[in-house]
């Protein structure tokens, strides 16, 4: 009976998550609701046991052809189901608030890793670390204190840390987010707008935020190739970034043609399967020392 009552709540929330197909009782949806409930309980346990792992995907400088940094991307190391991609659990983590604990753990782990790389004898070039910040993090009153603690504990150089924020995060709460971003900027942390072009940011607001780069969403990089004639919106986005004194990172680069096009457009950085999939920490040194120059 207890489980049934929980399942009702879960079903209500499954609807809220947009999974509802019918409004009347539907066995398929009930099944989905139970699954969602199980996922939630599973995720709670995973947070308590820290069943997560951070993968790192290189970001390449198109000016030097060398790796300039890495983006930290979380995966769930499920004891039975194996490695689960973020798309399968981040939405539920967001909805339940568990994302804050997961994201803090990712930030902490990525900073620990960055500090090891900063002091690694075989790594001679400067390396940056990009971490995704979820919208939920911005409603935590102690976000700045938490970040200060992580910086202090891990001893990373904050100039090597980049935080990725989506347009919707900024636009949802312009004033509060602006204050937080300014505090992060005072700590010399770099701020990057993620998935640029997919949200609703107003250009007149954008320039007043302390952003150092715009990350062009992979959907635009993809269309650039399909639509050879006018190259789509990518040149315009690079132009916008330039005019605001921001740099550009193109995401989802999979082909040599895309790389060549981006280079001819003076895009500064690129990331994608052409260079490398996200990899485990222990493969990074090999990649850094053996990678070709693109
Ligand atoms: P994102 O921040 O836009 O990250 C880029 C995603 O594109 C990653 O998916 C990456 O593996 C994938 N990708 C990279 N290169 C290519 C390519 O050439 N082609 C294609 N098709 N895809 C490529 P991933 O790792 O599955 O992460 C998905 C999303 O989950 C991320 O999108 C981000 O929004 C979220 N996420 C991942 N880790 C975290 C985290 O620690 N915290 C938060 N809040 N969100 C995270
Ligand atoms: Ca990102
Ligand atoms: Ca992105
Ligand atoms: Ca994306």
UniProtKB/TrEMBL annotation:
Domain EAL per the UniProt entry, residue ranges: 36-292
Domain of life of the native organism: Bacteria
Name assigned to this protein: Response regulator receiver modulated diguanylate cyclase/phosphodiesterase
Source organism: Tolypothrix tenuis PCC 7101
